[in-house]
Predict the 3D structure of the following.
Amino acid sequence: MNFQGVELAAITKLAKLMCAADGIVDKKELTVIAIELTRFGVSREEAEDIVKAADALEVEQALPIIKALDEEGRKYVGAYLATIMTSDGHIDESEVKMWNLVSMLCGLPDMSITEALEFIKEA
């Protein structure tokens, strides 16, 4: 997977929304975000810039960026959000609703949470 700056910012925006969906931003969820940025070869300084860009984006700006990704990219985003959702060991109903809403609005491929977690392991 290879994402550009604005795409990473949009993905990070949605990741942060997923972290906050249940009203509790857990350290494990934030760790997932940091690990994924590192996995993409993003340095600490670049990560700070991406997070600032994500914070500056409105959700309405981030959604079409994600929707414009290719099928594999959108599948990754769905799997990534599911990973965040499950990382604290508890799946809250509000997180599932957020995941379903983002999936619908961004045209993310249909998959179960189990399929999403399997996909992210192989990505």
Summary: The helical segments are 5-20, 27-39, 44-56, 59-67, 71-86, 93-106, 113-122. The mean pLDDT is 94. Residues 5-20 form the longest helix (16 residues). Residues 77 and 98 are 13 Å apart (CA to CA).
